[in-house]
């Protein structure tokens, strides 16, 4: 069941596309619906698999990639490169709210986390160095407990 925040993001995404002169497209609509219900990042292959399982009329791979590119160009989603050669995508919140990631180098498990202390530390470092940080990515790599054994 979608939350109010999910619905707000979907409405926001549709408004951005409408104001940029984009017509509604089936692939974009389905991707907006998917992104509005996700909390973290997914690969294009995972997106394609989810759409194929959930739809009577599958969305073509080329349409998925075009929609991902458009949503990324409009800053509605963020493309994550986590160093494993596989791009992942997640929604970009209009208010700049975000999370960071832990990735298992063995199985590829991806875990999102928030840490207000880390955000404060990043802000202090940027102030100390005289830089204005407009965005940042934090990716911690290691082994999950299942793979560590």
Report what the structure shows.
By secondary structure, the chain is α+β, with helices and mostly antiparallel strands. It folds into 2 domains: 1-94, Arc Repressor Mutant, subunit A; 99-149, 2-Layer Sandwich (Dna Ligase, domain 1). Helix content is 46%, strand content 17%. It has 6 helices and 6 strands, in the order H-H-E-H-H-E-E-E-E-H-E-H. The chain has helices spanning 4-19, 26-37, 44-54, 61-73, 116-128, 145-148, and strands at residues 42-43, 77-81, 87-91, 100-104, 110-113, 139-142. It has a 3-stranded antiparallel β-sheet with strand order 1-3-2. Strands 5-4-6 form a 3-stranded mixed β-sheet, with no helix packed on it. Helix 1 (4-19) packs antiparallel against helix 2 (26-37). It is globular. The mean pLDDT is 87.
Low-confidence stretches: none
Please report the total strand number as a whole number: 6
Count of domain modules: 2
Described by strand count, sense and barrel closure, the largest sheet is: 3 strands, antiparallel
CATH topology of the largest domain: Arc Repressor Mutant, subunit A
Average residue-wise pLDDT = 87
* Approximate helicity band: 40-55%
| CATH superfamily annotation of the largest domain | Winged helix-like DNA-binding domain superfamily/Winged helix DNA-binding domain
Sum up the overall morphology in one term: globular
Structural class: alpha+beta
- Encode the helix/strand succession as letters: HHEHHEEEEHEH
Radius of gyration over C-alpha positions, nearest whole angstrom: 17 Å
Q: What top-tier CATH class of the largest domain fits best?
A: Mainly Alpha
Spatial separation of the terminal alpha carbons:
36 Å
Strand fraction band?
Answer: 15-25%
């Amino acid at each position: 069941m979608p939350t109010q925040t999910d619905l707000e993001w979907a409405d926001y995404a549709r408004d951005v596309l409408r104001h940029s002169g984009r017509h509604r497209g089936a692939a974009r609509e389905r991707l907006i619906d998917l992104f509005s219900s996700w909390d973290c990042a997914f690969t294009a292959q995972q997106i394609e698999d989810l759409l194929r399982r959930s739809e009577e009329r599958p969305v073509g791979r080329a349409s998925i990639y075009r929609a991902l590119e458009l949503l990324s160009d409009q800053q509605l989603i963020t493309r994550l490169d986590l160093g494993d050669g596989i791009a992942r995508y997640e929604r970009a919140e209009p208010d700049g709210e975000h999370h960071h990631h832990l990735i298992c180098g063995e199985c590829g498990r991806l875990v999102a986390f928030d840490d207000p202390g880390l955000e404060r530390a990043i802000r202090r470092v940027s102030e100390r160095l005289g830089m204005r940080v407009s965005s940042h990515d934090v990716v911690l790599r290691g082994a999950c407990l299942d793979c560590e054994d």
